[in-house]
Amino acid sequence: MLKKILNPFPSLPLRQALCWGIVALILSAIFCWQVGLRVTSLTQVNYAGGSLASATLQQVVVWLLFVVVLYVAALIFSREKVSFVDVAAYNLFARIPFDVMLLIFAIPMVRSVTGLVMDGSMATASEYATTLLLIGVVSMLFAAWYFYWSYKAFAKASSLRNGRGVSLFIACYIICYILSGFVMRFV
After folding, report:
1. Does residue 7 lie within any of the structural domains?
2. Would residue 8 count as lying in a domain?
3. Are 132 and 122 in contact (CB under 8 A)?
4. Strands annotated E in 27-143
5. Tell me, what DSSP letter sits at residue 175?
6. Number of domains in the chain
7. Is 160 helix (H, G, I), strand (E, B) or coil?
8. pTM, two decimal places
9. Which candidate, 8, 14, 141, 152, has a CA 20 to 30 Å from the CA of 121?
10. Does residue 33 form part of some domain?
């Protein structure tokens, strides 16, 4: 059971990955819209809010940008045939830990403390150092889970593993993180 939680991709059918990923994307967009979150890059959000359509578009753009970068890298470096649908579906499923991490913003105390930090009120926010530390630890755990799943999804879809696959995945993430920060200004 723990093995499947750590790496569900060896036994995860493509259709299931796509279906669960779409459900998570839709629920995440609805949640971001309701809470007033705006996706600003591949793994960052702020309290800018917006409509349901803009929240959905932000989720889709960030996901597709990462998929396209991963797919192009896999086409160039993989010795095997790479399917865009495989890369897209497994990467969409791999975003689930990040989407679950966003649920921390449903807690009113977390929303108010992170709002203070985002507004630059560090003096007031320093009063809540323990809360910020807890938010940071929870976020880091879910981020590590998201990165691990994203790599495993990329490895399954592209057959790029070990050092070569890891280094290529990290390079793709860095490129996409920078690109997404720029692209999301216009979404």
Report:
1. no
2. no
3. no
4. 38-41, 44-46
5. H
6. 1
7. coil
8. 0.91
9. 141
10. yes
